Structures are given as structure tokens and as C-alpha cells.
Amino acid sequence: MAEWRALKNIDPHCFACGQGNSHGLHMRFFSNGERVKSRLVIPDHLRGWHTLVHGGVLATILDEAMSWAAIHLTGHFILTQEMTVRFKKPVHIGEEIRVQSFVNERVSPKKAGLKAEICNMSGDVCAESSGLFALFTTEDFIRKDLVPAHMLEAMNESMWRSA
Ligand SMILES: CCCCCCCC(=O)SCCNC(=O)CCNC(=O)[C@H](O)C(C)(C)COP(=O)(O)OP(=O)(O)OC[C@H]1O[C@@H](n2cnc3c(N)ncnc32)[C@H](O)[C@@H]1OP(=O)(O)O
């Protein structure tokens, strides 16, 4: 298995991975060509019930992790089409968590099924997700006019393209 290497963040404003978004999660991702991973501590302002992390924030983390895996492990740009989340154990504000994701199924040339899970430092799975992702060629994604072409080109250069 290849070594884990850091993946390049492109959009500084993204709520999940933007390093310049002062309200965001500042997620950084690593891949070994088969999986994508990240670790983070949820900031205090994203709490839900007392000291618990809001479930919608955990869903965002899972969506982001599956998205990065879908992009870097299939070599396509993506849109999340659907996802399900199972919240299994509470996650607390200030607790370090780890998330990992992978391509579970190549449903068709334009669709992939992804999975992700969030674990606490004891190794317990706290939340897990499955998602269906629409896969786009660079040309098709540029045509959709959702993301500036220069950002897509910068990301294109750093993709793994291993699945
Ligand atoms: C690094 C940063 C990572 C950040 C990741 C964050 C992930 C996200 O949150 S994405 C945001 C949330 N998701 C969305 O907004 C998706 C909204 N949904 C959609 O756009 C559609 O339902 C979609 C594309 C997912 C699935 O569409 P689907 O039902 O398969 O196709 P359909 O509705 O028939 O097609 C819609 C259009 O997209 C085109 N299209 C659909 N899939 C593809 C594809 N894989 N390749 C090319 N074109 C496609 C169709 O040709 C059609 O185009 P047109 O309107 O010109 O006819």
C-alpha cells in the first residue's frame, strides 16, 4: 500500500476544508490511493445539545470525506447526489475525531457509491455514512459552470486517479 500523502486544498472559503474560513472546520485530507482520511477537533461554536457536536456538522464531515475520496480516488469532479448517516455514539466538542472514506462501488461510469466513518480516539465508530456521487469529467464539470475552471485545473493536477 502506498504512503499517505497530503491532498491539496483548493478553495480557501469552503466551510469544511477551506483553510481561510474563520467559521469552518479547516479539514485537511490525506490519501494512500485506496482511502482518504482526516482528523480534527470540532470548535465550540458548532455544538448542538450541550457539549455534543451537532449531527448536521458530523454529516458535513462525512459528506466532505466521501467527496474528497470520490474526487481523488476516481479522478472525477463530483456532486453529492444522496447520502445516509447513522449516528452511533455521541461526539463531544473539543474531542479529537478521525474520519476515513473510500469508494465502495463503481455503480456506473457516471456514478459511484462511497462510504465514510468517524471514530473517536478510543477507536469507537461514532457515525457512518453511505453516499451516491455523480462523477463528471473536467470538461462536463466546467460546462456546468459551478466552480471556476482555474480551481478545477489546480485540483486536477493533484488527483490520485487510482480507482
Ligand atoms: C474539494 C471540495 C469538495 C466539496 C464537495 C461538497 C459536496 C457537495 O456538497 S455537492 C453540493 C450538494 N449536491 C448538489 O448540489 C447536487 C444537486 N443535484 C444535481 O445536480 C443532480 O441531481 C445530480 C447531477 C447529482 C444528479 O443528476 P441525475 O439525476 O443523475 O441527472 P439529471 O437530473 O438527469 O441531470 C441533471 C443535469 O446534469 C447532467 N449530468 C448529471 N450527471 C452527470 C454526469 N455524471 N456527467 C455529466 N453530466 C451529468 C445531466 O446531463 C443534466 O444536464 P442538463 O440539465 O443540461 O440536461
UniProtKB/TrEMBL annotation:
Entry annotated with the keyword Chloroplast: no
Keyword Transit peptide part of the UniProt annotation: yes
Domain Thioesterase, chain residue ranges per copy: 52-105
CDD domains attached to this UniProt entry: PaaI_thioesterase (cd03443)
Keyword tags: Apoptosis, Cell membrane, Cell projection, Cytoplasm, Fatty acid metabolism, Hydrolase, Lipid metabolism, Membrane, Transit peptide
InterPro entries: HotDog_dom_sf, THEM4/THEM5_acyl-CoA_thioest, Thioestr_dom
Subcellular location: Cell projection, Ruffle membrane; Cytoplasm; Membrane
Membrane topology note: Peripheral membrane protein
EC numbers on record: 3.1.2.2
Known catalytic reactions: octanoyl-CoA + H2O = octanoate + CoA + H(+); hexadecanoyl-CoA + H2O = hexadecanoate + CoA + H(+); decanoyl-CoA + H2O = decanoate + CoA + H(+); tetradecanoyl-CoA + H2O = tetradecanoate + CoA + H(+)
Matching SUPFAM superfamilies: Thioesterase/thiol ester dehydrase-isomerase
Family affiliation: Belongs to the THEM4/THEM5 thioesterase family.
Protein name: Acyl-coenzyme A thioesterase THEM4
